[in-house]
Structures are given as structure tokens and as C-alpha cells.
Design brief:
14 helices, 71% helix, mainly alpha, 256 residues
């Protein structure tokens, strides 16, 4: 069973699983005698990790590192596993090893950033996300910028968070988390029409969440659109009747 992750960082956990690069090469001169076997075991370990079979995943990844101690992808993947198991010292050690072996390994830099952010080490985390996007070949740079925005937002650095979400959306205009975070920022700044625009973009790109619906209700309340308010409330009540957001709406939006 996967360990719980903060609601706003669900995307981060997803990135952890999707960002493992099984084809990562090592620039070190060291050539392991069992390099092929190590790569196979790393892939098996990743598959078991994604399935939630942590014990078997750990066995395969340890075997891969015994066969090739200099395999960055194995260090990255076992670090993710240790993170899920709550063994943070081991996770950090393997993340450090992965990025020291391959500084351009953007997936590992991003995953390391997620780990550090969840430890409350925000400045170190931001540095890792920025390291990830330095690689022009990194296909998930938008997600790294989004992760950076989510992390600096934990420090209440709204201006910097907004800049990262904008960069993420420039690369991937339909990125749901960045869209809803931009809606939240504009709502807080009383830019209600801008908030509405981001919510409408979010609606086209993703399925509703309780938080997104609450933001939509708050935005339309500020704009005075009673039909939109009723529509969003109906969706929230029908899909998420037991949510905290429904409770807030029932108590009165002006008191939330």
C-alpha cells in the first residue's frame, strides 16, 4: 500500500513513478561486468515498485546495484522506494548518488527535488528542480517547473510560485495543477476574471476535484454569477457530498 502524500502534491508522487529513466547511461569510466543483468533487474524493480510490490522491488534493485554500483537509474529508483518506506536517510543517499553519477539526469534531479520539498528543505528542493530543467532534452520540464511552484508556494512565496506556474503553462498549456494554482493565486489577489479564465481552462483539461469546485464557487460568488454558482454547487454536492469543501459551502462561502 502506498504511503499517503499531501493532497496538493499528488502530482509529485505521480512524477516520481513516471520519471524513472530506464535507459539512462553512465558517463563514468567504470564498466560493470554484469551491466546487462543490472539493467534488467532495475527494470524489474521499477515494475514491482509501480505495482506496489515493495519487498520484491527492493530485492531486485539491491541486486541491480550489486551487479552495477554505478547505475544511476537503479539509485534513483531505489531512492524512490526508500522514500515510500519512510527510510529517508537511505533515500537521500541514493538520490545523491544518482545525480553525482549523472548530473544531467533530470528525472533524478526532479525526484530528488520532490523528496527535499516533502522534507521541508525548500531552497535545496528548488535548486534540484532548476537543475532538472537545465537539460534541454528533458521532456518533463513543465512538470519540474510546476513542482518548483508547488514547493515555493509552501513558503508562501506567491510571486515566485506564480512565475514557475507560468513557465510550466508556457510549455504545457493544459497542465491541470498549474491551471488551478493560478486560479487560486488570482482569486487571492482579487483578479476574479483572471481566476475564472483559469478555472475554465482547467475545466477543459481535467476532471473536477473538490478544491477546484470550491475555487470556482468562490470566484463566481465574487463575480455575482448566480447561475454559475448553482451549477458548481450542484456538481460538488453530487460528486463530493462528504468533502470538506462541501461542508465549507454549506456553512456559507463568506465564512470560509
Amino acid at each position: 500500500m502506498m504511503l499517503p502524500v499531501c493532497k496538493r502534491f499528488v502530482v509529485l508522487a505521480f512524477v516520481l513513478l513516471t520519471a524513472c529513466n530506464a535507459n539512462q547511461t553512465v558517463r563514468d569510466a567504470y564498466i560493470a561486468p554484469d551491466a546487462k543483468a543490472a539493467d534488467i533487474n532495475m527494470r524489474l524493480g521499477l515494475n514491482y515498485l509501480q505495482r506496489g510490490d515493495y519487498a520484491i522491488a527492493l530485492e531486485k534493485l539491491k541486486k541491480a546495484l550489486k551487479q552495477n554500483p554505478n547505475l544511476p537509474s537503479a539509485h534513483n529508483t531505489i531512492a524512490i522506494l526508500y522514500q515510500y518506506l519512510g527510510e529517508n536517510e537511505k533515500a537521500e543517499m541514493h538520490f545523491n548518488k544518482a545525480v553525482s553519477l549523472e548530473p544531467d539526469y533530470s528525472e533524478a534531479q526532479n525526484n530528488f527535488g520532490v523528496f527535499l520539498c516533502q522534507q521541508g528543505r525548500y531552497e535545496e528542493s528548488e535548486e534540484r528542480f532548476l537543475n532538472a530543467v537545465k537539460n534541454p532534452l528533458y521532456s518533463s520540464a513543465a512538470l519540474a517547473y510546476e513542482n518548483a511552484g508547488l514547493c515555493v508556494d509552501r513558503e508562501n512565496n506567491t510571486a515566485k510560485a506564480e512565475s514557475y506556474f507560468r513557465k510550466a503553462l508556457q510549455m504545457m498549456p493544459t497542465l491541470p495543477k498549474s491551471l488551478i494554482e493560478m486560479a487560486a493565486i488570482n482569486l487571492e489577489q482579487k483578479n476574479f476574471l483572471q481566476a475564472r479564465a483559469y478555472i475554465q481552462r482547467y475545466q477543459q483539461a481535467a476532471t473536477w476535484t473538490p478544491r477546484a469546485l470550491l475555487l470556482a464557487i468562490k470566484t463566481e460568488t465574487a463575480l455575482g454569477d448566480k447561475d454559475a454558482i448553482s451549477s458548481y454547487k450542484l456538481i460538488l454536492r453530487s460528486r463530493f457530498p462528504d468533502s470538506d469543501e462541501m461542508r465549507i459551502v454549506n456553512q456559507g462561502i463568506n465564512n470560509s
